[in-house]
Amino acid sequence: MRTELERIAEVAKERPDEKFTSLVHLINEESLVQAHERMKQRKSPGVDQVTKDEYEENLRENIRTLIGRMKTNSYRPKPTLRKYIPKAGSDKKRPLGIPSYEDKLVQSVLADILNAIYEQDFLDSSFGFRPQRGCHDALKVLNRIIERRNVNYVVDADIKGFFDNVNHDWMIAFLKHRIADPKTIRLVNRFMKAGVMENEELSPTTEGTPQGGVISPILANIYLHYVLDLWFEKIVRKRCKGQAYMVRYADDFVCCFEYEAEAVVFYEALVERLRKFSLEISKDKTKIIKFGENAQKECINLGKQSRKRLIS
């Protein structure tokens, strides 16, 4: 499996326009057993209430049965079980989707396949949900930009409810840029539309990818690669006369500009760009911030003027 993924990655890197026509066969007994071995113990079960230990009691037979259903096109992902967990830095809670154990295995292998392809396409500005490109790496790059480049304005942006609003049609369209295997596309689509079970009530999922799903992180990066990363790199930066940079971590991103006018134009264009793909910015969390030496001088001058008014 590892050798085949490496070959896929190699082809994806060497041929940026290549469309992969045969992928789903990589979800086989060997790869599913490997996915099972990687799964952590004592994870909360999904709607099937099956744990890793229980699945392992008859592992080979369970996996053979699963593969048989996939070959006959009778495999249907179960709804994800919705739970709520505390949201960091807030008294609110955020939804978490827990797939059934079998679905976790299939998603895990499918995520490996998608990562092998798209890691060759993703830009250096993208961090989060990627191998060795975590939060600290994003902060290091951002620090280098603001310390060494002409950055006077920063657009600190946040997408409102990103995982809940991913448009399924656009997601499939983006996948088809690289994948021409209808079975793989159908499998991704079924996962997205599997539904959500909450308080024993089933709700359809016509949009979004449930947070907590094994496949959700790579799908999120693929979606934002086309919606945001390529747009900024190929369109926004080329239209800017001054310097412009972006650093994205998952669905949060920071854009740095040399000129105020270009930061303002970008902010306005961003609203329209996201709307086209069924997304919107969180207005209370997105703002343009004055930055750098000019901002510091302005603050000092404002401070001096305030003191003069107080004295007089």
Rounded average pLDDT: 91
N-to-C SSE string, H for helix and E for strand: HHHHEEHEHEHHHEEHEEHEH
Structural class: alpha+beta
Report, as a whole number of angstroms, the end-to-end distance. 77 Å
Largest sheet data: 5 strands, mixed
Strand content: 5-15%
Number of helices: 12
Quick one: overall form?
globular
Helix content range of the residues, please? 40-55%
Strand order of the largest sheet: 3-7-8-4-9
The CATH topology label is RNA-directed RNA polymerase lambda-3
CATH homologous group name: RNA-directed RNA polymerase lambda-3
Low-confidence stretches: 300-312
The CATH class is identified as Alpha Beta
Number of domains as seen in the coordinates: 1
**Count of distinct strands:** 9
Protein name: Group II intron-encoded protein LtrA
Organism: Peptoclostridium acidaminophilum DSM 3953
Pfam families: RVT_1
InterPro entries: DNA/RNA_pol_sf, Group_II_RT_mat, GrpII_Intron_Splice-Mob/Def, RT_dom
Helices, strands, pairings?
Layout: H1 2-14, H2 29-38, H3 52-56, H4 59-71, E1 80-86, E2 93-98, H5 101-118, E3 126-127, H6 135-148, E4 153-158, H7 162-165, H8 168-175, H9 182-192, E5 196-198, E6 201-203, H10 216-239, E7 244-249, E8 252-257, H11 260-276, E9 287-290, H12 293-311
Parallel strand pairs: 1-5, 3-7
Antiparallel strand pairs: 1-2, 4-8, 4-9, 5-6, 7-8
GO molecular function, one term: RNA-directed DNA polymerase activity
Domain Reverse transcriptase: 66-306
Keywords: Hydrolase, Nucleotidyltransferase, Transferase
